[in-house]
């Protein structure tokens, strides 16, 4: 597959995945927010929220849009709800992301399998209502394993490969639905760096097997929540987690790598380790309500061109924006687009 970015212009724009949900759908400014509706009313409300998310991105000028994960309560659990072999009534409090914070996690009690398509409804709805390139996000196999209690497989690698097969099944369906880019979200890569370079990428290869679309992996330092902000504060003067597995990613069959950059302590020269990959460069900070200026966004993009060919850079957000104020998210999207235009004018 040719991994060059199919775009009419330099520095096309996209987002990591999630956007804030409308207040009538779920409680705002909160992760894992419970739904405010039920049954068919909830299904219709999710459809409406998906259309709003697409319109919000188009109005801002985003080039590669997505569904905003409006139909999912959480990026991991939104996939798991359609998986057989998981007991959601058997919740276990676990430390996830290497005990960074605790979460109530469902338990794998048997061989996993898809009960049905997972995201067909929102993917087809999105495809029918935008002419722009469409990206769809799925949780990565390692991150799925890290967010589940295991009472069946007894081995993280075996369980990850089992989930990778299910992700591949759903991803093939998404391609048939008209999705242009499928992104696997792997925040766990930044925690289990040695495993990421080994079985983490092996599981990703199983998940992307045979896909006739662009494939991406998103690896960040987490949502802008207190636990993640506190963790990052203790990572020292330089964040070098990416260094441990970027060389393996460069050799992988993944087309694109989405990463955190702006307001981080990631040494930009680490981007050189991704030689041959498209880089979805985080130029919007999701851990602050402060709105970036277009000049700040452009500066990040320009700095990155010292380490990555400019034709391979996509302007993106650091991570998902689900817990953020909606008005803040809208302003940040406009700043992303305006900043990309500034950098494009300077470097074209």
Verbal overview:
The structure is a single chain. The chain has ten helices and ten strands. It is an alpha/beta fold. The strands form two sheets. A seven-stranded parallel β-sheet has the order 1-4-6-7-8-9-10. A three-stranded mixed β-sheet has the order 2-3-5, covered by helices on one side. The two termini are 26 Å apart.
Q: Which helices and strands, and how do they pair?
A:
Blueprint: H1 39-60, E1 64-66, H2 77-80, E2 83-96, E3 101-114, H3 120-128, E4 133-139, H4 141-145, E5 149-150, H5 156-176, E6 181-185, H6 193-208, E7 214-219, H7 226-233, H8 246-250, E8 256-259, E9 278-282, H9 294-304, E10 313-316, H10 326-347
Parallel strand pairs: 1-4, 3-5, 4-6, 6-7, 7-8, 8-9, 9-10
Antiparallel strand pairs: 2-3
Helix pairs in contact: 1-3, 5-6, 9-10
* Beta-strand residue fraction: 15-25%
Oligomer: single chain
How many helical stretches? 10
Which sequence of strands runs across the widest sheet?
A: 1-4-6-7-8-9-10
Summarize the structure.
The protein is built from ten helices and ten strands. The chain is of the alpha/beta class.
Quickly list its features.
single chain; 348 residues; alpha/beta; TIM Barrel; seven-stranded parallel β-sheet; three-stranded mixed β-sheet; 35% helix; disordered N terminus
